[in-house]
Specification:
The protein is α/β, with parallel strands linked by helices. The chain is about 40% helix and about 15% strand. Helix 1 runs parallel beside helix 8 (about 180-195) and helix 3 (about 70-80) packs parallel to helix 6 (about 125-135).
Length: about 200
């Protein structure tokens, strides 16, 4: 069992909060895989391929995947499509899926369009991923935990939680959209420790 760790934009897995999560995984008998997303590619296809390539390099393994913000979107899509992923911890999932764009304020549309060159919006849809989760039998389905900070907009995570059967929703008290806050990454570690998968040694 291995833990894939995906940072939020424009962060790096070299940031201390991600190393702390990785160290906690090691203590639980789980090998962390730190994927430093190449944000300058600005392409969800490239980011997605980075994750799949890392998974393919660990032949025969099963995975837990954790992502924050944009990294959470990548983790969510990978988990919905690849059943080697047995659990997904989705932290502060951004609202930049294609079906969200029409409802974004104009300044966020400009920012998101610059960030992704609209490649994301053309193909990166949340609802098909929700359907993919629900189409798998409960015995084989990837389990999913959705986390949001108390001081940020929880609407996307709450909506996904309500639509995915058996998912878990966690609000992290006293934090915003900031994985660097010790209260946030400590709660992520607490949730990982609750997984029955963490009892499996590598």
């Amino acid at each position: 069992m291995k833990l894939i760790i995906l940072p939020g934009w424009p962060e790096s897995v070299r940031d201390p909060e991600y190393f702390t999560i990785g160290d906690a995984a090691i203590q639980m008998g789980i090998e962390p895989i730190f994927i430093d997303i190449n944000w300058w590619k600005r392409s969800r296809y490239f980011w997605h391929a980075q994750v799949i390539q890392a998974m393919n390099e660990s032949e025969g393994e099963e995975f837990i995947i954790f992502g924050f913000s944009i990294g959470a979107m990548i983790a969510f899509k990978v988990a919905s499509e690849d059943h080697r992923v047995k659990h997904a911890a989705i932290a502060s999932m951004s609202s930049y899926f294609s079906e969200d764009i029409a409802n974004l304020p104009w300044y966020r549309k400009l920012y998101a369009g610059w960030l992704f060159w609209f490649d994301w919006f053309k193909q990166y849809e949340c609802l098909p991923a929700v359907d993919e989760f629900n189409s798998v039998s409960p015995l084989n389905r990837t389990s999913i935990t959705l986390l949001t900070g108390e001081q940020e907009d929880p609407s996307k995570s709450v909506k996904v939680h309500r639509q995915i059967e058996g998912s878990k929703y966690v609000m992290v008290n006293g934090v915003g959209h900031n994985m660097g806050d010790p209260k946030y990454y400590s709660r992520v570690i607490e949730e990982l420790k609750l997984l029955p998968l963490t009892s499996i040694s590598i």
